[in-house]
Amino acid sequence: MNLQERFNDEIYIVDTTLRDGEQSAGRAFSIDEKVEIAKYMDENNIYQIEAGIPVMGDLEKECIKRILASRKNSLISTWNRMNKKDIQHSIDCKPDIIHISVPTSDIQIYSNLGKDKIWIEENLRECVYFAKDKGYEVTIGFEDASRADINYLITLCEIVKSLDVKRVRYADTVGILMPSIVRKVVKTIINSTGIEIEIHAHNDFGMAIPISLEAVKSGAKYVDCTLDGIGERAGNCNLQEFIRISDVFLERNKKEL
Amino acid sequence: MRKRKIEIIDKTIIVLKEIYGDKLKEKTPQIQELIKLLYIIGSDYIEITREIYEELSPLPQNVRFIIANNNNIETKNADEFYNMLNMKSNVCNLKNTRIIGLDDMIFYDYEKIFSKIISVFGENIELCIRNQYESATAMSLEWLRLGGKKVVTTFAGIGGYAPLEEILGSLSFLEKIKLRGNHKLFPEVLNTFEDITESKLHTNMPFIGKDIFNVESGIHVNGISKNPSTYEPYDPSTIGRKRNIIIGKHSGINALEIKLRELNIKYNSNNLKSMLEDVRILSTQKQRGLNNAEIKEIYEKCCI
Q1: Could you tell me if A170 and A190 are in contact, meaning their C-beta atoms sit under 8 angstroms apart?
Q2: Touching check for A156 and chain B: CB below 8 Å?
């Protein structure tokens, strides 16, 4: 008896070991190490490698350029805050995808940034246009989406869709989701907007893997992971474990279909 | 905070005995201490066997114990179990039963299966979900959300069960359920547990990892300095930890200023940018965050 509803039978892994993973406090990869990790991901056909944050400086940019020069299979993306300066540094590296992170919860918009939603929407449009105008594929990260109003996320999806963005990252920035909650929000966003979802889970409550798997069951196509689950606080979704578990899940459903 | 009748049955002591056997006899005082701590942090019952009862007697006072029985239903496959429940109605006659396993519950429509379990056995049945697919915490919490009342745990998930600290922390901080236990003693439980097992747990484990409230990223330090809730899911002090700012490759000006003030260094703001560049270079070279002596050295080079 197959108890599943529709889901994607292929899961696209976005490895963020070199960006969010390295943000784990006290961890700093050398350039050679980062290039080596990217090579390993590339050889193992990881769909996308989030290679770093170009605005951090010349060392980071040099590293991203080396990763781009040596990759054969994976798409290479760079992470940016929502401003043109960050994006210009990314453009200097010529990545495959420019990822722009957008604060979405009230605490991030009003308390942390000291801005409002109109400012967010205007800057979002400008930044996406800035990167798209130069021919780049853009993905959008909804920072702190799990504490944001779902209707506001839908509004932002509509804005970026109108600018030809196909994928948004639903970031559980402080790791507070549960499977039954992620199921509802992922389904709501997909049913309301048709946009592709990338799930970005944190492990603060020990649930990054089941949250990611439940998101896939609910229609998310992309899953963010890091090697050994490294990352801020209790880390991110563990790459090796997620692949092991999702392989069993996909295999079992294949048999049942 | 809501009040709800939930029972957490912790079987850490049984699992330790299964793993370490007679070696544990040398650690009797530490085991006695661990039992007290597991109870104080929020376990409702400490599960032991008759053998453990005899070995450890007299048991610590003011702790509720239960003796393990063999009235268990073991099932790894949740889907098969669901089908079995649909076909056989006689299982509902089983009283005081524990269901062990259901490892792959996350693969299926767990809400439907949990509802079926409640309709067959009632909400008082104990669920001991195993962690083969890293979902024991998530599925135990979903079980409690759907009306289940009893779950089985072990500290740090030893033996492949739902980690006690994750269940306690999630019930408090996510579900806002008022629990009896004192989570500030998590570090003390960790120390006692590591003393008994003579091994160190990963430093990023949820709730008990020593490093989970270390923070380095410029964006995060900046946000936390304005309002800790921006990048922390709960207050570190509620689990007996402190936030610790690490200066390294991902630090920003704001973090550097906070650290310099912590070190009582009177800095000139004009020098911070060049200091930060040196911090990033040295941190990348050393492949780690910098210690206070290294930060002072950079300050002296850039500012004196």
Answers
A1: no
A2: no
Its pTM stands at 0.95
Whether B107 and A207 lie within 8 Å, measured CB to CB? no
How far, in Å, are A121, A130, A135 from residue A156 at the CA level? 7, 17, 21
Domain of residue B258, residue span: 214-303
Of B79, B109, B213, the CB nearest to A233: B213
pLDDT digits (tens, 9 = 90+) for A219-230: 999 999 999 999
Q: Are residues B191 and B222 in the same domain?
A: no
Contact B216 A57 (CB under 8 A): no
Is the per-residue pLDDT at A4 higher than 60? no
Chain B nearest C-alpha distance from A48 (Å): 22
Cβ of A211 under 8 Å from any chain B Cβ? yes
- The total number of structural domains in chain B stands at 2
B142-163 pLDDT tens trace: 999 999 999 999 999 999 999 9
A248, B107: Cβ pair inside 8 Å? yes
Give dist(CA B219, CA B232) in Å, integer: 13
CATH number at B109 reads 3.20.20.70
Tell me, yes or no, whether B275 and B160 share the same domain: no
Complex ipTM: 0.96
Helix (H, G, I), strand (E, B) or coil at B268: coil
A47 inside 8 A of chain B by CB: no
Confirm whether B270 is domain-assigned. yes
Q: Are residues B23 and B156 in the same domain?
A: yes
- A3 in reach of chain B (CB within 8 A): yes
Domains of chain A: 12-256 (3.20.20.70)
Burial of A23 (0-12, 13-18, 19+ CB in 10 A): buried
